């Protein structure tokens, strides 16, 4: 098979390329990425020489380029997006351009060639659950996005489904909870926390820190995408989450401090993010029942591995960390 991966230089995209080439060594991958501040080719250093892998620097809004790449592939796995909620508050327009118009540009080309299209989306399209709630998001949950990021992802999900219903494009969607693991930009919560500590700085916690997320390791996510690509029902969406160990940002910080043998006095509380969603929790019953998927990666074990990874790979994050600190300073 020949796959077009969009946003393959980002966190989940680069993990997915590693995963796919390991499991499907005969397949060809084209990685289309415009290398925004969030795209890091260094994440693909160890696969870049392989003749099964091609990198194309380009924008998913470039319809001519997208058309020419689409004509060459069997499947698209669409990761490319603006992804940082904080940036969607300071600069929302780029989120619509990339996440909505960019997705539609890809869909137009997929319509022309009848290409199988898998869209990577987020549980944030469903809004927030109450802190004390025992509910979980599932594929029947009403869309109720709260940030410009989640609103743009919600719009893209609707476009993807509309291209299936109206034009018969063979699509699937996964709405996934918060991922963590190697190669995640230091602007995001877990890597920012770890690298702050590695640099001798304190951890920064928004508000009271009681923001609960359903963490899942990126490898579990890659396995879910693989299953949906190979066996998922065309026209379906699947919600994907972690091992039901949803923990607050404050608890995650304390776990990281404990693993790194540092005191809790290293936590600083800062002004809350506007419109901050209290709690996300995701049901993975449908993907389990239909495709047999379940999360396998234990949170604490993988968190320790992630800390070890950042400790051992300072070369990968040191420069980007300066940029993400600049962003937070100007906020
Ligand atoms: N990270 C998470 O926890 C999470 C959870 C659920 C869903 N998602 C979704 O998964 C996907 C990947 O997320 P991530 O965390 O890996 O993102 P990321 O920010 O790490 O990477 C995004 C990539 O997209 C590229 N890109 C951005 N705009 C582009 C454009 N116009 N044309 C081509 N490439 C462009 C960037 O250069 C970067 O390489 C996104 O669609 C996101 O909404 C992420």
Automatic annotation (TrEMBL):
Keyword tags: Lyase, NAD
Residue ranges occupied by any NAD(P)-binding domain in the UniProt entry: 4-305
Any Pfam family hit: GDP_Man_Dehyd
GO biological process, one term: nucleotide-sugar metabolic process
EC numbers for this chain: 4.2.1.46
Cofactor(s) needed: NAD(+)
GO molecular function terms listed in the Swiss-Prot or TrEMBL record: dTDP-glucose 4,6-dehydratase activity
Entries under CDD domains matching the protein: dTDP_GD_SDR_e (cd05246)
InterPro entries on file: dTDP_Gluc_deHydtase (IPR005888), NAD(P)-bd_dom (IPR016040), NAD(P)-bd_dom_sf (IPR036291), Sc_DH/Rdtase_CS (IPR020904)
Source species, domain of life: Bacteria
Catalytic activity: dTDP-alpha-D-glucose = dTDP-4-dehydro-6-deoxy-alpha-D-glucose + H2O
Family from the record: Belongs to the NAD(P)-dependent epimerase/dehydratase family. dTDP-glucose dehydratase subfamily.
Stored NCBIfam families: dTDP_gluc_dehyt
Protein name: dTDP-glucose 4,6-dehydratase
Species: Candidatus Collierbacteria bacterium GW2011_GWA2_46_26
């Amino acid at each position: 098979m020949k796959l077009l991966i969009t946003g393959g230089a980002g966190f989940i995209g680069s993990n997915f390329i590693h995963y796919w080439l390991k499991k499907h060594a005969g397949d060809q991958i084209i990685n289309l990425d415009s290398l925004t501040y969030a795209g890091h080719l260094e994440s693909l250093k160890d696969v870049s020489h392989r003749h099964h892998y091609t990198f194309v620097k380009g924008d998913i809004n470039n319809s001519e380029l997208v058309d020419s790449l689409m004509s060459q592939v069997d499947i698209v796995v669409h990761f490319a997006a603006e992804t940082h909620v904080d940036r969607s508050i300071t600069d929302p327009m780029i989120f619509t351009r990339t996440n909505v118009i960019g997705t539609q540009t890809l869909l137009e080309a997929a319509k022309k060639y009848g290409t199988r299209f898998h869209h990577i989306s987020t549980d944030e399209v469903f809004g927030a659950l109450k802190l004390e709630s025992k509910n979980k998001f599932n594929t029947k949950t009403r869309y109720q996005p709260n940030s410009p990021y989640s609103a743009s992802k919600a719009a893209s999900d609707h476009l993807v489904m509309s291209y299936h219903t109206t034009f018969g494009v063979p699509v699937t969607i996964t709405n996934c909870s918060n991922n963590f693991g190697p190669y995640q930009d230091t602007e995001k919560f877990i890597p920012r926390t770890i690298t702050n500590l590695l640099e001798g700085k304190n951890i920064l916690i928004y508000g009271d820190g009681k923001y609960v997320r359903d963490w899942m390791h990126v490898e579990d996510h890659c396995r879910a995408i693989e299953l949906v690509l190979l066996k998922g029902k065309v026209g379906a969406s699947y919600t994907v989450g972690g091992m039901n160990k949803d923990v607050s940002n404050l608890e995650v910080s304390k776990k990281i401090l404990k693993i790194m043998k540092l005191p809790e006095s290293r936590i600083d509380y800062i002004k809350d993010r506007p419109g901050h969603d209290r709690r996300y929790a995701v049901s993975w019953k449908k993907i389990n029942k239909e495709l047999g998927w379940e999360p396998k990666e234990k949170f604490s074990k993988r968190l320790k591995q992630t800390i070890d990874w950042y400790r051992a790979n300072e070369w990968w994050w040191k420069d980007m960390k300066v940029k993400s600190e600049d962003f937070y300073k100007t906020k």
